[in-house]
Amino acid sequence: MARPLSNHRCQDLLVAVTVVAAFLVAAGDASSVGFDLHHRFSPVVRRWAEAGGHPFAAQEWPAQGSPEYYSALSRHDRALLARRALAGGADGLLTFAAGNDTVQYIGSLYYAVVEVGTPNATFLVALDTGSDLFWVPCDCKQCASIANVTGQAATRLRPYSPRGSSTSKQVTCDNALCDRPNACSAATNGSCPYEVQYVSANTSTSGVLVQDVLHLTRERPGAAAAGEALQAPVVFGCGQVQTGYFLDGGAFDGLMGLGRDKVSVPSVLAASGLVASDSFSMCFGDDGVGRINFGDAGSRGQGETPFTGRSTLYNVSFTSINVDTKSVAAEFAAVIDSGTSYTYLSDPEYTELATNFNSLVRERRANFSSGSADPFPFEYCYRVSPNQTEVVIPDVSLTTKGGALFPVTQPFIILIDTDARRAVGYCLAIMKNDLGINLNIIGQNFMTGLKVVFDREKSVLGWEKFDCYKNARVADAPDGSPSPSPAARPTKITPRQNDVGGNGYPGAAPLPRSAGSRNAAASALGAGGLSLLMLAAAALV
């Protein structure tokens, strides 16, 4: 996601998320930290929200694969981007006490459950490679409402207060992680204040830094016994005041930064000696399920390209755009941002990719946004016949600096008629960057089907096609090959029988409806899907 203007560049299953600070309380070998990922609109997250009585769960969720679904994600990206103007080798996994699964929720952001303090308080926080500070609702003066949460969920999702935790410690203004020592005043009682501005729509978080324990578990490969419980002191933001999209459903319960600044989760884990390598990986499944592992430096044979620029963003360079066997030279840089729903390209890169893709598809272009409440975000869409069961999608990849191919395994989205429960079309899922910022963004959709490795130690981005369920590499991946993508292959557009709780089309979007039938969730939550790319960092790219 993008970075805010800030001194801190800044149920089933959900995951624990954290900023682990400088010291580890319980002894343990250096290893990696892991958890699974789910999509914000996924059935898993919906069941969690409904079981917990979360206020947003009462609204109708846009059906996966519908135009409302994609419009919601697009509004999320545009709102937050506009306002910014912008492991192999480890001997075990360090996971969170709540488990190592994560969920993808509104806006294609990935969320995790984190437990901090004594007794532990639990939060569902967004995971963001475009910002650094980890913060949770705390001693709230203005936070997203959890008034409708009842029963067991009421104890699992509650605002945190340092006064209620026996292990909390004050972070004073002379602490090395305090970026605003001159802002200390009698009002903060000696605690280091923080404030993160997210540029547009008056979105921000502010409060004071605090240190407390993060609940973790160290797992060993092949071990049958339960992992070793650990408590690691962490420094994070006690978010007393949230504004803008944080009050409308985006990162309503906190945010974990994964950027390269000293306060970010990976930085603190590496500084503490908790992981063997200053790196982490994120696996993105095609159904919104994935994993994240801290300390994972990837594997031999993965594709790699160096980070470029002096920004704390994960910026890389590309040299060509490949659509099937056609390769077009294109020198451009882009930020790898897991917190942005879609990929944004400026011209001429956008036009080169889109027109080459369009020239190879067999179906006729169609306009699916006619009469809908919100503009449909994609320009290149195609209609399929009622009895059509598959389409031939051109293969897409990007050649990176150094020659390795970055494969785009899912450059399209399927549109479905939720009433007839069938596919009616598909779209090339890229957006033209007309937001007024000189920045290309490789969003979460271009990382689907990959395990992406952020190797900060070697300053390289790695990737390989990956099965997030089996935690194994896909054998036919051409990740490191410098040759163009293989020819297009047929793609099934029939519903999956095992899509439990879904519409049978994982990753698909419902057909846009008329303004009178506007989806409530798309309206209330769509803009809240955060893309937190910070303008200050983007300016250094």
TrEMBL record:
<keyword id="KW-1003">Cell membrane</keyword>
<dbReference type="GO" id="GO:0005886">
    <property type="term" value="C:plasma membrane"/>
</dbReference>
<dbReference type="InterPro" id="IPR001969">
    <property type="entry name" value="Aspartic_peptidase_AS"/>
</dbReference>
<dbReference type="Pfam" id="PF14543">
    <property type="entry name" value="TAXi_N"/>
</dbReference>
<dbReference type="Pfam" id="PF14541">
    <property type="entry name" value="TAXi_C"/>
</dbReference>
<dbReference type="InterPro" id="IPR033121">
    <property type="entry name" value="PEPTIDASE_A1"/>
</dbReference>
<comment type="similarity">
    <text>Belongs to the peptidase A1 family.</text>
</comment>
<keyword id="KW-0449">Lipoprotein</keyword>
<feature type="active site">
    <location>
        <position position="128"/>
    </location>
</feature>
<dbReference type="InterPro" id="IPR001461">
    <property type="entry name" value="Aspartic_peptidase_A1"/>
</dbReference>
<keyword id="KW-0472">Membrane</keyword>
<keyword id="KW-0645">Protease</keyword>
<dbReference type="GO" id="GO:0006508">
    <property type="term" value="P:proteolysis"/>
</dbReference>
<feature type="domain" description="Peptidase A1">
    <location>
        <begin position="110"/>
        <end position="464"/>
    </location>
</feature>
<keyword id="KW-0732">Signal</keyword>
<protein>
    <recommendedName>
        <fullName>Peptidase A1 domain-containing protein</fullName>
    </recommendedName>
</protein>
<feature type="region of interest" description="Disordered">
    <location>
        <begin position="476"/>
        <end position="512"/>
    </location>
</feature>
<feature type="active site">
    <location>
        <position position="337"/>
    </location>
</feature>
<dbReference type="InterPro" id="IPR021109">
    <property type="entry name" value="Peptidase_aspartic_dom_sf"/>
</dbReference>
<dbReference type="InterPro" id="IPR032861">
    <property type="entry name" value="TAXi_N"/>
</dbReference>
<keyword id="KW-0378">Hydrolase</keyword>
<dbReference type="GO" id="GO:0004190">
    <property type="term" value="F:aspartic-type endopeptidase activity"/>
</dbReference>
<feature type="signal peptide">
    <location>
        <begin position="1"/>
        <end position="30"/>
    </location>
</feature>
<keyword id="KW-0064">Aspartyl protease</keyword>
<keyword id="KW-0325">Glycoprotein</keyword>
<dbReference type="InterPro" id="IPR032799">
    <property type="entry name" value="TAXi_C"/>
</dbReference>
